[in-house]
Specification:
single chain, 107 residues, mainly beta, globular, DUF736 domain-containing protein
Length: 107
C-alpha cells in the first residue's frame, strides 16, 4: 500500500493533491455528483481545474468505516488508477491509498 494523495474535507467536498511517479496533480477536488442516479452511479466526481479525471463511490468497510473508492482515468494513463480515500485517524485530513490489485489470472 502507498499513500498517493492527501486531502482536506470541507462539507461534502475534498480538496488536495495526488502525487505518484506518473501523476502529480495539485488542486484536485472531489465533489458530490448531484446528478447521480441509480444504485451503481458514482457519488462524487474528481476534478482538476475544469477537467474531470475520475469518479468516486461511497463505500463502507467490513469494520463499519466509511470511505470513498476512486477510479482515476485520463488519456495519458495506460490504465485507470484505483485507490481508496480514508479519513485520517486524527480527523484532520484524508489519505488516498493505492495498492496493487491482486492478479486475476494467477500471474
Amino acid at each position: 500500500m502507498a499513500t498517493i494523495g492527501t486531502f482536506k474535507k470541507t462539507g461534502n467536498e475534498y480538496t488536495g493533491e495526488i502525487v505518484a511517479l506518473s501523476v502529480q496533480a495539485k488542486g484536485v477536488r472531489i465533489v458530490p455528483d448531484l446528478r447521480a442516479t441509480g444504485e451503481n452511479a458514482p457519488s462524487h466526481r474528481i476534478l482538476v481545474g475544469r477537467a474531470e479525471i475520475g469518479a468516486a463511490w461511497s463505500k463502507r468497510s467490513n469494520e463499519g468505516r466509511d470511505y470513498l473508492g476512486l477510479k482515476l482515468d485520463d488519456p495519458s494513463f495506460s490504465h485507470p488508477i484505483y485507490a481508496n480515500l480514508f479519513d485520517d485517524e486524527d480527523g484532520e485530513g484524508s489519505s488516498l491509498i493505492w495498492s496493487r490489485p491482486n492478479s486475476r489470472r494467477g500471474e
